[in-house]
Amino acid sequence: MSRSKHINELIASRRALLGGMVGLPLLNLAGCATATQGGDAASGSASANFTSVPPTNADTVSLPPGYSWRKLIAWGDALFDTVSPVFDPNTLTRAEQEQRFGQNNDMLALFAAEYAFPPPRNQDRMILCANNEYTSSSLAFPGVRTPSEFTAEQVAALYAAVGVSVVEVERTGQGWHALRNPAPGQGRNRRITPFTPVTFSGPAANHPWIAQGAAVTNEAEPGAPANTVACGTGANCAGGLTPWGTYLTAEENFDGLFVGSDRAQAMRDARQDDSYALDSASFGYPSYYEPFSSSLAPRQFQVSENPYGPSLYGWVVEIDPYDPNSTPKKRTALGRKKQECATTALTRDGRVAVYMGDDQRNEYVYKFVTDGRFNPSDRAANMDLLDHGKLYCAQFHEDGGVWLHITAEAANAAAAAQDSPIRFRDQGDVLMRVREAARLMGATPMDRPEDVEAVCDANWRGLGPVLIACTNNSERGFERPGNPRRESERPNSAQSNLAGHVLRIDEAGGDCGAERFTWDIFAMGGDPNAETLTTTTRGGMPAHISTKIDGVETVSGDKFACPDNLFIDSTHRVWIATDGNDGVFADCNDTIMVAPGQAEGPRPIKRFLVGPPGAEICGPLMTPDERAFLCAIQHPGANDVAGAEFSVSRWSGAPVPSHFPDGGESWPRSAVVVITRDDGGRIGD
């Protein structure tokens, strides 16, 4: 197989092509017989009809005139009547946190109150699933004065703040609000944490690493039902929904769950297996950076006790939000990586395509296509579709690209051709170590591929275009710079991609089951109005900020950087959430940007929302009628407007940098917010 080619290596020979493709609309709507999810694609304006929000570092959610926001739910809010409605972050225990909304909410998903396909548009009661990606000890337990004061019970509570929160929400005359259930199991509210029993399914379910990690975990968490592992889920970044009404949560930076030293004897023994040594180096575990002693962490997260614990994470986990007693399933057929997302679209013949990004520098984009077909008339018949299918990795060529089918045979043949000693025992081993397989087979390394979103019709069928958010790449070098080249004073020099970009692929024949595609650039992060080609970041580094590709402008309007999550509405407007905008443009916190997918030429891009200091904006989505916009405000106060990290400055007595969402002198809390138009109209029109 050919050597992996970095996307930047592909740009030079495509100059003649890109000039005519960068400004193409996502779809020729005149020839599109079906509407996208959520409504009639032709009924709205392609351009966003609001006044752009100016850059700001304000400690609030800043919106255009005519829009308002309110908190829907925040870290610590009670999910059940069995805990106090008043949240005291200083007295939090694991048992209490397991009945409260988790910390650092990321992706959001909404489900109709009762399952139906296609999903109904007009809903006054829904189920919200929210990822709780990780824990921030610096933003917890405000009464703790020094790291040495943390206790094992507090650390267990922090672990319990991670995972997924499921909560019923309702719209009344006062707007959308979260509902409390009487008690766990009475209603659909639920927490899934790193202690919840789950099952492993698919080809890697019986992998020896999983068996060894599960044995230690179940010993540390006794009482798990037979054939389950009490490892729950953690490091939940993005994910997706299935057409049969289940939630897919993607486990990303799971290395951060594990504590201890890589010099621990158990780690040294495990690294005698070259496969394990490569795995630990690739994923970087353990990498827990909290300031307290690692001995306070639960035993199953200490690598000295459980060196194979990391194999239990990095999967896509399927959760049924309609059944609070159901057991989540880790679908190993989709491969183990730092999963950013797991978004779905139906192929032309009714199979299910799942798109995934591996969010690390120079990792890959993946697609899984089920063997079986979706049955819209029988929900139960779809419940194990994700256990059987083909997993692909993307290889970009100068004139298009291919999806490479990942198998043990193909990966071993590629290794032999390269004189590599790496081998895979079977398909389960390939899925456990899928990064190595993709690398050997020639997948194209990318600039932190995060969200991957297909344009779909009202019946979930993919129409061909797929957008990929490539957040950034701080690496620079001559061999493999991590981005399409921007304009530069030194055009023959390598450059980093601090501002990121959004990539577009078009599946062959408009079919998400295709094995070939074409590609171009949808938008470059940066400043289309800049008078210079670089800016100095808050950290003092130069950042290239041109939004042109080979002299062709990709966007016009407002500056932005670090695209992360995407949402495509019924008019094909693309809503882009950023993660790190303030690291490039210090005068503006993270944002939601809007670009019309239908536009030709440079896409006009507008700033719809700016979050509070230190906060990443995640999980953009709308209610089915598109009259409410939801997003997650994650880790407000994680840094101040100068960029000082509160995880460091807190212990020297610095004041907390944010008081969001409650204001005054309150302690900051991650939160889900709901945005509506003051006149009740559709968002963006």
Model description:
The structure is a single chain. The protein is of the alpha+beta class and 685 residues long. Helix content is 13%, strand content 28%. The strands form 8 sheets. A 9-stranded antiparallel beta sheet has the order 12-13-15-16-17-22-21-20-19, with no helix packed on it. Strands 2, 3, 4, 5 and 6 form a 5-stranded antiparallel beta sheet that branches. The radius of gyration is 23 Å and the shape is globular.
Summarize this entry quickly.
The chain is 13% helix and 28% strand.
Q: Helicity, in percent?
A: 10-25%
Let me know the average pLDDT.
92
Fraction in beta strands: 25-35%
Question: How far is the N terminus from the C terminus?
Answer: 49 Å
Shape type = globular
- pLDDT < 50 stretches: 1-20, 29-45, 477-483
- Number of distinct beta strands: 34
Radius of gyration: 23 Å
Number of helices: 12
Largest sheet: 9 strands, antiparallel
* Widest beta sheet: strand line-up: 12-13-15-16-17-22-21-20-19
Based on secondary structure, the structural category is: alpha+beta
Question: Which properties best describe this structure?
Answer:
34 strands; 685 residues; globular; five-stranded antiparallel beta sheet; single chain; nine-stranded antiparallel beta sheet
Write the layout of secondary structure elements.
Layout: H1 7-11, H2 15-21, E1 67-74, H3 94-97, E2 105-112, E3 125-132, H4 152-160, E4 163-172, E5 175-178, E6 190-192, E7 199-201, H5 208-220, E8 236-241, E9 247-251, H6 265-270, H7 274-283, E10 316-319, E11 329-331, E12 343-346, E13 351-357, E14 361-363, E15 365-373, E16 389-397, E17 400-405, H8 408-417, H9 427-432, H10 434-441, E18 446-447, E19 449-456, E20 462-470, E21 501-507, E22 516-524, E23 534-536, E24 542-544, E25 548-549, E26 552-553, E27 555-557, E28 563-568, E29 573-578, H11 581-584, E30 591-596, E31 603-610, E32 616-622, E33 629-634, H12 646-649, E34 671-677
Parallel strand pairs: 7-11, 27-31
Antiparallel strand pairs: 1-34, 2-3, 3-4, 4-5, 4-6, 8-9, 9-10, 10-11, 12-13, 13-15, 14-18, 15-16, 16-17, 17-22, 19-20, 20-21, 21-22, 23-24, 25-26, 28-29, 29-30, 30-31, 32-33, 33-34
